Amino acid sequence: VLNMAVIPAEAAAQLQTFQETLDELCEDIEKMLQMLSPSSAEPLPPLKRAQALLALANAIHALNMLLMRAHGKDPEQMTQIHKEQERLAAYKKKVAKAVSGDELSRARKTVELNVDAANRFISAAIPD
């Protein structure tokens, strides 16, 4: 428990702002988790869901690192942090690969051959 009489007013105001921001972040994370739930009223498509879950995991990982630093621990010295970073990097690559595959498949769908036009072109190119 902090003794607010010892803390300068400016620092106390910054701590209050930090606490309010942290509370808002917790509310946003709860909303996101509810939205990502498979039982959600409007479930996201699998690729969007994977991107959102990866973003959420990265945000929570960053918050965990901040918490460790606030407790005076060096996150770079902890093997769990390195394992989590490697895991997130691997999933980031998987999601990026899925996104590029999805974009490629959508690009392929837009190219269609107009058979009638192709036949007219071929007929015009072949001399009688």
TrEMBL record:
GO-annotated cellular components: cytoplasm; exosome (RNase complex); nucleolus
UniProt keywords, alphabetically: Cytoplasm, DNA-binding, Nucleus, RNA-binding, rRNA processing
GO biological process: maturation of 5.8S rRNA; regulation of gene expression
Chief place where the protein resides: cytoplasm
RNA-binding as UniProt keyword: yes
Top-level taxonomic group: Eukaryota
One of the record's GO molecular function terms: RNA binding
Keyword DNA-binding: yes
InterPro entries in alphabetical order: Exosome-assoc_fac/DNA_repair (IPR011082)
Subcellular location(s) of the protein: Cytoplasm; Nucleus, Nucleolus; Nucleus
Assembly information from the UniProt record: Monomer and homodimer.
Job description of the protein: Plays a role in the recruitment of the exosome to pre-rRNA to mediate the 3'-5' end processing of the 5.8S rRNA.
Protein family per UniProt: Belongs to the C1D family.
Name recorded for this polypeptide: Nuclear nucleic acid-binding protein C1D
Organism: Chlamydomonas leiostraca
